[in-house]
Specification:
- By secondary structure, this protein is of the alpha/beta class.
- It has two domains: 116 residues; 250 residues, Rossmann fold, CATH 3.40.50.
- Helices cover 50% and strands 9% of the residues.
- The strands form two sheets. A five-stranded parallel β-sheet has the order 4-5-3-6-7, sandwiched between helices. A two-stranded antiparallel ribbon has the order 1-2.
- The radius of gyration is 41 Å and the shape is elongated.
- Belongs to the sulfotransferase 1 family.
- It is an enzyme of class 2 (transferase).
- It comes from Glycine soja.
- Its EC number is 2.8.2.-.
């Protein structure tokens, strides 16, 4: 056999190095392209189908690499290096074992990394789906089961009323919280309610049980409350469609204390948040009650009775009347007021509730932020047009001040004589 002899310049070391590098690139190419494509799609796609697809393709990577290496070996045998004058044919040595092991380990590490990224994104998607399920509209049965577990005392339960008198339209998906203001007459509840109603998302419907027919028995009470909390109660304060909190005032002497157990059970079953509003200075409350009772019959404003006023002039007109307090029964009357308040707190202590005092609201307006937080409302600046009627020391508002002063001096109620707030 005649051998072929080639003459010409020798192949340089750099050319030999390039010739060895080319098959290595061919060896790495399929793994590199596959891993790059996987990483790109995993980072840019939220499709769980693609995640599963590429997970299933990962085991095929060694097979793809095998066939590609077979093709590369065929190509390596035909590699030719040319220069200007001469053609050199030189077979390449096979890739060393260490290089193949490195490629295998690299492929395994990349595969594990991609699997971990995939599983992490799938778990994140699952958690997102779970959160979406948790904020779906709860059924009445689920509400009852949660209430039985007493899980609603820390956070007010969300409701999605379906009124029959109107359509909530685009606000149908907005949750609503239920509340009730439990208080006594002349304890600042009217002023407090106007503050609440100045919030764009609150509807407090006043003293709904001031009408006797609505509190004849437990059944009529429940029917009335259902109408309120179903958003079918219409009043001047109603912001029904997009209300975030709905409620009313309920005075202790308006049937509330006649059926405490049934009403407390109703509050708990419907997840009604209770706001107790009382007045510490019971003597001032007594003065306000007597003055209001007088104007109810005297009608000092051109034959019109006003329980609340909106100007200093109106307040001065009402405060001109100085009631006479029965000093003989004063201690017993104050004690009775205290006991009535204590009983209300005892009867409804199983409800989700907070306790407010009129004096604290006047002297510390940050209490209103606590109320909004309690009801789960966005914080807003609450305002009211109402003006306080009896300002200054009580000695200016009680006709028989000396008798009252002597009666309370040295008793647990002596502090009522000196407490003053000008707001």
């Amino acid at each position: 056999m005649v051998g072929l002899t080639f003459t010409g310049p020798q192949v340089s070391t750099q050319t030999r190095s390039n010739a060895q590098f080319f098959p290595i690139v061919l060896h790495f190419l399929p793994q590199t392209l596959f891993l790059f494509l996987c990483a790109l799609l995993f980072q840019t796609s939220n499709s769980q189908f693609l995640f599963s697809l590429f997970l299933s393709l990962l085991p095929l990577l060694p097979l793809v690499s095998f066939f590609w290496n077979r093709i590369a070996m065929v190509l390596k045998e035909d590699i030719c290096f040319f220069n200007k004058d001469i053609l050199v044919m030189k077979p390449q040595k096979k890739s060393p074992l260490l290089l193949r092991m490195s490629v295998l380990i690299f492929s395994m590490v990349c595969g594990v990394f991609i699997c971990s990224v995939c599983l992490k994104q799938i778990s994140t998607h699952a958690r997102t789906m779970l959160m979406e399920l948790q904020i779906e509209k709860p059924s009445r049965s689920s509400i009852s089961s949660i209430n039985r577990l007493n899980l609603t005392h820390d956070v007010p339960l969300l409701h999605y009323p379906e009124p029959v008198s109107f359509n909530r339209s685009e606000c149908a998906g907005n949750p609503v919280r239920f509340f009730a203001i439990l208080s006594n007459q002349r304890s600042g509840s009217g002023w407090f309610e106007t503050l609440l109603n100045s919030h764009i998302n609150v509807s407090s419907n006043g003293e709904i049980f001031s009408v006797r027919e609505r509190r004849v028995n437990v059944s009529t009470i429940v029917q009335t409350l259902d109408k309120v909390y179903n958003l079918d109660w219409l009043s001047s304060a109603s912001k029904n469609e997009c209300s975030a909190a709905i409620g009313s005032k309920w005075m202790l002497n308006q049937g509330l204390m006649d059926h405490p157990k049934e009403i407390a059970d109703y509050f708990n079953s419907r997840s009604v948040s209770v706001i107790f509003l009382f007045r510490r200075n019971l003597l001032r409350r007594m003065v306000s009650m007597l003055a209001n009772s007088y104007d109810r019959y005297a009608k000092l404003f051109s034959g019109t009775h006003k329980s609340h006023v909106h100007s200093k002039e109106e307040a001065d007109t009402l405060s001109k009347y100085k009631p006479t307090i029965n000093s003989t029964s004063l201690l017993a009357d104050l004690k009775d007021m205290e006991m009535r308040t204590a009983k209300a707190l005892e009867y409804f202590n199983t409800t989700r509730h907070m306790i407010l005092y009129y004096e604290d609201l006047i002297q510390n307006r940050t209490k209103l932020k606590d109320v909004q937080e309690f009801l789960g409302l966005p914080q807003m600046e609450l305002t009211s047009r109402q003006v306080k009627i009896h300002r200054g020391p009580l000695s200016d508002h009680i006709k028989n001040w000396d008798d009252v002063n002597r009666t309370l001096a040295g008793t647990i109620y002596e502090s009522f004589l000196h407490a003053d707030y000008s707001s």
